[in-house]
Amino acid sequence: MTMPAAEPTNSQEAGFVAQALRNRSFLIGFVITVFIAGMALLSFFWTPYDVTKLIVADRMLPPSATHLFGTDQFGRDVLSMIMVGARSSIAVALVAVGIGMGLGVPLGCWAAARGGIVDDLLMRFNDVVFAFPALLSAIIITAILGPSATNAVIAIGIFNIPVFARVARAGALAIWPREFILAARAAGKNRTQITVEHILPNIANLLLVQGTIQFALGILAEAGLSYVGLGVQPPMPSWGRMLFDAQTRMMVAPYLALIPGFAIVFTVLGLNLLGDGISDIIDPKLRRQR
Amino acid sequence: MTAYLLKRLLIGIATLAVASIVVFSMLEIVPGDPARLMLGMNATPDAVQALRDQMGLDQPVIVRYFEWIGGLLTLDFGKSYTYSVPVLDLVTERVVVSLPLALIALALSTLIAIPVGIFSAERRGRAADTISMGAAQIGVAVPNFWFALLLIYIFAVWLRLVPAGGFPGWSAGIWPALKALILPAIALALPQAAILARVTRSAMLEVLGEDYIRTARAKGMPRRTVLWRHALRNAMIPVLTILGLQFAFLLAGTIIIENVFYLPGLGRLIFQAITQRDLIVVESVVMLLVAMVVVVNLLVDLSYAIVDPRLRTNR
Fold this sequence. Notes:
The complex is a heterodimer. Chain A is mainly α. Helices cover 74% and strands 0% of the residues of chain A. Chain A contains twelve helices and no strands. The longest helix of chain A has 37 residues, at 78-114. The two termini of chain A are 15 Å apart. Chain B is mainly alpha-helical. Chain B has two domains: 2-73, no CATH class; 96-312, MetI-like fold (Orthogonal Bundle). The longest helix of chain B is centred in the C-terminal third of the chain and has 39 residues, at 223-261. Chain B starts with a helix and ends with a helix. The interface between A and B is large, with 40 and 47 residues. Chain B: Keywords: Cell membrane, Membrane, Transmembrane, Transmembrane helix, Transport. Chain B: GO terms for molecular function: dipeptide transmembrane transporter activity. Chain B: Pfam families: BPD_transp_1 (PF00528), BPD_transp_1_N (PF19300). Chain B: It is found in: Cell membrane.
């Protein structure tokens, strides 16, 4: 991966916007992501129906004008549940990325700045955590701590740490030998100052791309955990749980299994396109290959 | 090469050691007394204490840890609290479902992804490339358990070609058993194939841009030979790395997929064990899964050395 030669300047940032508007992946991904995030935000103030109200007489209604996506086995409006479910998905995935970045980036930067034995030990430990199947560990962690959204966040977050540590370290190692770092050292700055002032701004792009990828993976992981009953707990709607409930009713109401699935695919697709778009823009060498 | 493989082997052993400490201490903090759980609510305190002594639960943590490790190394996994049968029996019974499932999925994923990746790289920017990479982009976003539901709906409920779930056992014959595994394997494989196809394509593109490929073409070597002999071999390193990671992912994925299809594999065993607080089963299954992942990663490291002759001399 190549890095920008120096810290981003205003003209480079203007170039980013212009390039972003011309990049199809970025545009589609951005629109989808904003749409889903907007839907989740909107659900705090308004949903077509109340998702906590069970109307048994209206149960399992197929999609219609009054219930755009139909109703579930308790008569809850599926569209409203999708909107509220977006909230849980985004919250879990976002905080998990936050945990991964918050702990992984300092570790990776520290390893790159110190080198030697610190670097070796940290990276070996990273390899060990990496070798664990993350989903398996997430299942065990949530099973032990008890199933809840918070524990799902912790479980997914822990496995984001080595990912960010690795990306931050690789990025930082490419910046350290540069001349402007040498200049900063000559000016008497210590490693922490250099890391904060010069390394971080230069690897921010890489971290942003990895962030969108881990965010998408977090959405998938949350859906999987909720599906097996270890994520967001009912009555709070979640996409994974909706799929679990739909499984036994697939013969009568296939739309119940289709709609939450499409919501997950749409969201993850949007985030992946956004990530691809950003990395295309910041790293033109990769674009040749796409 | 010996030094390189020795180093990888040491890392593998270290991984297992750390994993064992993590797993052991995690389950150590779980509330609940296994002896009481086994005997039920009506047991007298004396009976519970007797069982605790028999199970060695009152010994210091360190002693129990090393006894457990010693047991794992001699294939003595202990006895399940709830089933009262040796854990080894439970595990072998289940591993013959999970491992073939993960391996079939891995084979399917490789067989689909590598040709698609090469095909796309060859036709970069053309319609075939755009379509297959668009499909891969969607494939990456599909959760495997949802894909499994769709497959059940289409092939089991609607077309009635295969069973919707359950497993007849290998004793029922190879064909019925395979038939029960085919949908779960496809559900696991396709999202992974999408990732692998993308990696293969970009690794191939990277290599196809190299000077030696241009040279090979310029000297009149047939396109096919260039592609298969020069390009693919050099593109294999990133592809093999992903394959190793995918095996771990597939193995973990079987946990959820087995629940979708009601397959009696390790995944369902671990779920039942977790809900019944059958800690000794949980510990053993987790260690077994991690060990399988470590072994596969070692095989991947070994295959690097086969694919890339430089590794045989340099490191």
